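Not sure how to ask, but would you mind making up any protein sequence you like and the tokens describing how it folds?
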Amino acid sequence: MQRKTARIISQPQLDPMPWRISLPVTKRQSSKELHRLSTSSKTADHILRAPKCDKYQFISNFTHRRLTDPRELEALLKEKGIDNVTFCLPLWEQTDLSSGAHFMPLALFDDCEYDTFDPDVVGFWRNMEVIAITTPYTRWRSYTVINHDPCTNQWEVSERDSTTSYLIPRLQLYFPFEDPKKFAERIGTAVKARNTAENAIRFRFLCKHITSNGCFAPGRTLEQSILRRAGDEIYGVFKNLYEDYHIGLAVGQHLRTDGSVAIKQPSFSHSLRPPKDVPVDELKWERIVHLLDRFRRRTLLCDTNVFHALRLVNQECEMVRKLPMFVVASDKPIPLEEYEKLNLTQTSKTMKYLQNTWIERTTMHLHRLLSRIGNGHFNIGVGRWEIYNVMKLKRLIEQVLYRMQDALRDLLLDSTAAYVHYLVNDCSAVLAIEGEDYSWDGNLIDSPFEPQRPAVFYLLLEMGPDMPYYSTDPDTFPETLRHILDDILRACHFIHTIEPSLMQSLIFAENLYLSSVGLLDCAIVKQREALLEYYHKALLPLQAYAARYAAYRELFFTNVKEFVEQIKNADKSSSEIKEDIAFQIRMRENLEHTVPLCIVIGPFWINVQPLREALIRKRQELTAALLKMLTEKLRIKTADVITCYNAINERMCEKPVSIEHIYDIRAYMEEVPELVVRLEDRMRGILYEYEILEGFLHNLPDADFQQKWNALAYPRSVLKQMVSVKEFHESEVDRFRKQQFADEAAFTASIEDINAYISKFTTLYDVSKVSEMSVEVRRLWKTVQELIDQGHIMNRRQELFEMAPISLNNLYELRSNFSAYRELWTVAADYLKLEETWIGNPLASVDLDGVRRGLQQTHDSLKDLLPLFRDQPQLLAVVEHFIQVVEAFRPNLDIMELLKCPYLEAIHWGQLAKEIGVKGKLSVDVGFDVFLEHGFRDHLETVRRVVVKAEQLRLEQEARWAEEERIRQIEEAYRRARAERRQNRTEI
């Protein structure tokens, strides 16, 4: 064990991919250096020894972690997700790549780096008890290791006290000195590698068999460019590669997937005080004129068109204030999704009016009226900003802007108030809820949350696999209603001003919008909080009400067929089934009185009718199923009674074929009255069960009704049939007595004929006709046995007819005398058939142990026959002849055992053929008759010499392989150490 451990530790790490080809030693490596490494391996073992790998599978002290019970190993593999089916391959020849079945053997992906055990060097594994799994991969069992094939890494195992052996790969064999966790990781690594490889093959297969129809071909420009530069042949290769690449990409993608406006107040710089030297009247008039002029310069309403323009603007603003922004009225409760769609439609129409129609109509009114004024302070065609900034037109547009913003604000505030007023339908009980742990304690019909105004939203209560749920998730209501409100407020911030469309000679920025109501406006915040508070509290009783229906989940998902099967498996009596039916009826009536059609909880109108009808319908189905089951149960019981009556009639009415048959029927008929009484008692109990169905007003099918009354009328018909049968039997007894006399005469003649034939046949002793003699002997023996059986039958009939019995002594004596003769020819024929199979079949398929057993058994059987034929010299010679035939075959065993040596190769067979003088190719697949024809029995020593030489060559070859492996390991360790030293120098 110490030598084995050292070898395992010093073994280099293997390539995890066993199909890689290892590179040979480079020529630059010095042969002297290799010689020095090989000669100083003992002193430098601690330097050349490779470190333990994470995949190290061998454990030196395996008494701590070893597994000896196959069930423990199977449990460990199941924890790793490895099932016994993992080792299976499909039985069919061609694998369907579109299926998930494995089509590559698991042993192909075995990571040999785990296996640090070399069976060619250390042989303590032989006859060791291991755990393995063999065909048909049902479970892990204990086996004994017999042999190992180093070429294929196949291990031969067999069960204890069994001659059957199995060849299995290394992955299906666990030694007790291995780490079970590493062994499981080894199998798991192979499974992952196989899955990766099979997935890649399936992907290549899928890409290869996809018909692209030119969809992935290169474009016309690229095609012409390549054809112009490289030609048709190069373009054909490029096109195939290009299509394959893009088909792969398409398949992979398919598998991974689907501002503010500043206003300046005008300032007056001129004094209104008149000069002191001007007269008072003149001063008054001039002052009035001056003030009038100043007024005309300052006021906007200096022209009739301006007045009318502002009037029309005010009309448009009033129309805006009356626009419907939200849906605030409905004839009946509607689902949240439908309300959201209606709101979206209404909002879209209103926003379209605000962003387009309102601006266009206001601009049109101003343009139409201001254009009549012409040049001056209201010239809408001004093209310079410094002039526009001091014009009355700018102040007028600012006035219009303020009016429009005021109208927009009024619209939003009024619409928001109406929106919240419509949704919050004033249920004081909802607002009075405190805490999050509300539970519905009352009945399911009366709601303590009836609002003052009609409910807004429609909900359908449904039953889910885990718990009841609503058609719309209640948790979405607060956020959805808030988003509807906030989205409108955001959209109203993007209504353009009228300046760009009215003053087309000037250039304005694109982001000039009317100032709207903000999301954090005090009024909006108050309305939003009121809305969210109401709906957050309304969700508590809504969810608590749905939770009450969890008690009906089991009923809702009850499978009627499974329910009936459970009742049948429970084997309940009819009275118990009656109680179950009554219980289902009571529960159905309870549902009708305790579950409502609908209920209102705050803003929600809940439709419970579909769920209520489904629960009631399920109770009705269970009731009907129980009634049907009871009907079928009674039908089966009644049919069984009728079957018993029919069996009685059939048994009595059988046509007798012998006198024994008549006596059997008569014996049975004596028991018929008692059987009829018992069947009548059974039918009375069944009638009581029929009354249960009548109590539930269940109508029987016509066939069941007819069957019931037929069963009640059967006793009378059976007793009437008995009288007719007795009269028929009297006539049949006379007919069978006459037949007995004729059978007795024929039986006596048959005995005389067979006695004479056997006496003549036993004088034959031709050994060349063994096969014919054995067939005839077996036929005669069967005939004698049949005559003896027939004699017993006739004697029983003689007793029934009260006649004297027939003597069978001569038949017994004939069978005793003929038994030895039969044994001789059957043993001889069987041995000759075995000898033909041993000689004619290929030598590889011949079981030497079976040959030895067959020879010994035949020899012993023939020896036992010698004393029986001492008075018959001819037959005694036949026995001795076959004993000599058996003894003559025994020397063939030695030559057969030598020729079945597993170490004989083609070169050894050729040497045998040359030395013995055989012209032809010999092998273990040739029949033994070929070897006998060429006189191999006379060259036993030559064959033994060649076999011994083959065994010696095999031992030398194995030693040479072990030495080459040791040298290769030393060289690999040296190369790895040199690479590490170079890497260390590079890092420095």
Observations:
- The chain has a mean pLDDT of 78.
- Residues 702-761 form the longest helix (60 residues).
